[in-house]
Design goal:
PPIases accelerate the folding of proteins. It catalyzes the cis-trans isomerization of proline imidic peptide bonds in oligopeptides. Helix content is 11%, strand content 29%. The chain has 160 residues and is mostly beta strands. It has a single domain, classed as Cyclophilin-like (Cyclophilin). A hairpin with a 2-residue loop joins strand 1 and strand 2 (11-17).
Amino acid sequence: MIRAVIETDKGTIRAELDDLHAPITVKNFVDLSKHGFYDGLTFHRVEPGFVIQGGDPLGNGTGGSGDRIKLEIFAEGDSEATIGKILTGGKKPVIKHNKAGVFSMARTNDPNSATSQFFITLGDASFLDGQYAAFGYTEDTEVAQAIRRGDKIISIKIED
């Protein structure tokens, strides 16, 4: 596990990033964080009880880092990830969206369109399982719950 410390206007969110079950996704997030990409960006989307979303340099949900990564989801019982496609056939992902505090990559309708935007669940969002690349978790859900649209990501520091 890799740790990320996210300083926001509303406090600190400490996250555990699962580089075993989401190595491509975690590497993307870590690389962007280490290069200061997220510093000063806002949370542009806040859906109470559902998610907060940030990581868009344009601040409106349409921007990204310029580099796309493929959808990456490890299913229970599989030794390698399903890359580039949504899970089907009743497979269950290892990292689930079943509670508040799950980190996941945002994307367009194209499963392989994730760049820099990420979201944190604010409650059970199990209907996202197998469709979005979940890659970590935080127990600092009270900070995530306090985030409002326009609040800033002051910095993200990685502790490997």
